[in-house]
Amino acid sequence: MVWIHGGAFVTGSGRDFDGSALAEHGVVIVTINYRLGYFGFLAHPALSSINPHHVSGNYGLLDQQASFAWVRRNIAGFGGNPKLITIFGESAGGQSVIDQLVSPSAGPLSGAIAESGSYMTNLPTLAQEETMGQAAAKSLGCPGPYPRCLYRLSAAALNVLNPLTSLSSVSPNVDGFTIPMGPAPAFAAGKFQHIPVINGSNHDEYRLFVGLTRWATNAPGTTPQQYRGKMKGEFGPLAPEVIARYPLKEFSQPDYAYSAAVTDVAFACNAHLLSAEMARYTTVYEYELRDPNAPTASGPVVAGFSYGSAHSSDLSYLFPAYNVLAFHPDGPPPLSAAQKRLRTEIQDFWTDFARTGAPAGPSTGPWASFDRTVGVKGLYPAANTAPRPFFEDHRCAFWKSLLLSEAGLPAGSAY
Questions:
Q1: How far apart are CA 279 and CA 152, in angstroms?
Q2: Which pLDDT score is estimated for 202?
């Protein structure tokens, strides 16, 4: 199992993840690094001009592919099977898994697990990223048409990206070579590796980013008036319709309503869309982490604010030692007895899938593969509540036309 870390393609490290708990389930875990920020994803016309395929950017994805090739050559020496390689990752790592499925140069894989990685159902074109790269080069004092100036810059000068403010300038791109098509169009056309896939998200993804903002700014919770302003800033002319579908009376505080709207449009319903498209050609298992008090090792404690099952909450179940020390100096958030049982179940699901292509094991119940009649698999610490069905809970019918348009798919596409 090859782990691809997240971090918005600008931060993170494989060394942050101790895979020993998963290895105890009888699999070999490899955690990798890949180039990040401008080093990994800067596209520029000058760089494209000197590439034999006339492309640039996507270097980080190529690094990941180099690690897959290394595993094929060497993993037998560590007790692994080079013919059974499952890639898995979270956030940008999950997006990387999605992207690698459509990349012809990824090489043969046996399985893929994308955690919270469906937030980009399509990707910018090479031309778009080259334009962003030219703007980035100019901001670094290199406005000319040739890259020599960039080559002379120090690593420190190039490593200036902030993941919270510079996401638009760092992204994999559709270059026609490493990534021939965006994920959703490729899945719709069947142009991807037809291997078993686990794809899913967490119920309250965007609460992590709201919590980080509140902590960084030391700001109190959002007021109802500020909520309306945030929704207008996020959704523009669509804001009145969105506010009508996320009324404050349904949430205990405005921040939860705002988080729910962004979670649904950016993560939950996008994951459902990609699962539906992939399931036309291969076996897909879709999940949602639904722990109302999930451990959030990458989120600081914020008074009066609950993360729920926020972005990155799943990491604590797969990698129990994972922790951001600045937020939790006494160690990772503790798990209840029910959460420990869920941790065992999730680890069994993931490792059984890697071994057999189906998530089923001694501690787990059945998990039906995706189709239109099968609901999303809910991962709970206790089975004492029955939430609304996934599609209804996340208002996916409301978001359908917008998401299909953003994915580059026609209105009648699988969703």
A1: 48
A2: 97
The β-bridge relationship of strands 86-90 and 30-31 is unpaired
Catalytic entry in 91, 116, 169, 413: 91
Burial label for 311, CB within 10 Å (0-12, 13-18, 19+), is buried
- pLDDT digit string, tens, across residues 48-75: 999 999 999 999 999 999 999 999 999 9
The CATH number for 2-203+263-383, chosen from 3.50.50.60, 3.40.50.1820, 3.40.50.2300, 3.40.50.1450, is 3.40.50.1820
Q: Is 401 a catalytic residue?
A: no
**E strands, 83-149, where?**
86-90, 111-115
Residue in the block written with tokens 């604010």:
305
234-286: per-residue pLDDT in tens? 999 999 999 999 999 999 999 999 999 999 999 999 999 999 999 999 999 99
> Pick from 286, 96, 84: which is nearest to 198 by CA?
286
Q: What does the domain layout of the chain look like in residue ranges? A: 2-203+263-383
Other CB atoms within a 10 A radius of the CB of residue 307 amount to 27
Q: Which amino acid is at 50?
A: I
- Is there a catalytic annotation at residue 241? no
Sign (positive or negative) of CA dihedral 255, 306, 201, 165 = positive
Residue 158: CB atoms within 10 A of its CB come to 15
**pTM here?**
0.95
Which of 130, 205, 277, 288 is catalytic? The answer is 205
